[in-house]
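for the recovery benchmark. tokens below, seq after
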């Protein structure tokens, strides 16, 4: 079997084994696996080939656009279900996929890093509200 015909699902299993053998935390392994699986599901829903030779930066960019318009919890009946994923969440998906594609390249499955030039989308930065001196004083007054 040449590298181009390797299915994404098989690569994902190898990637998961790699992450476990490297001693990554259980939650990190789960997150990487979940993102790669979700990307594979996205390809299947669109009836796109999920083999290595079909994977491209343009396909991943389409996936990012999908994430940016995806509802948080499409299967739930609550007011929060109507909200889109936050930009910071989309960034974490992109970082996970970049990690996966970096691994594909390092392991020699591809001749180039397909996502080398893909940057996570920008997310708005929020500033933490700073406590005033009087508020800090009241907090400290409560401590015995």
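predicted aa per position
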């Amino acid at each position: 079997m040449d590298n181009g015909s390797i299915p994404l699902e098989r690569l994902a299993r190898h990637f998961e084994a790699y992450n476990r053998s490297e001693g990554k935390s259980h939650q990190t392994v789960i997150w990487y696996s979940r993102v790669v699986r979700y990307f594979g599901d996205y390809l299947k829903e669109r009836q796109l080939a999920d083999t290595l030779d079909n994977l491209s930066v343009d396909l991943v960019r389409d996936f990012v656009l999908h994430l940016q318009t995806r509802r948080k919890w499409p299967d739930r009946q609550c007011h929060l279900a109507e909200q889109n994923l936050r930009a910071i969440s989309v960034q974490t998906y992109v970082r996970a996929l970049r990690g996966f594609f970096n691994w594909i390249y390092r392991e020699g499955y591809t001749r180039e890093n397909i996502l080398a030039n893909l940057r996570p989308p920008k997310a708005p930065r929020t500033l933490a509200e700073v406590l005033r001196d009087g508020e800090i004083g009241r907090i400290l007054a409560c401590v015995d």
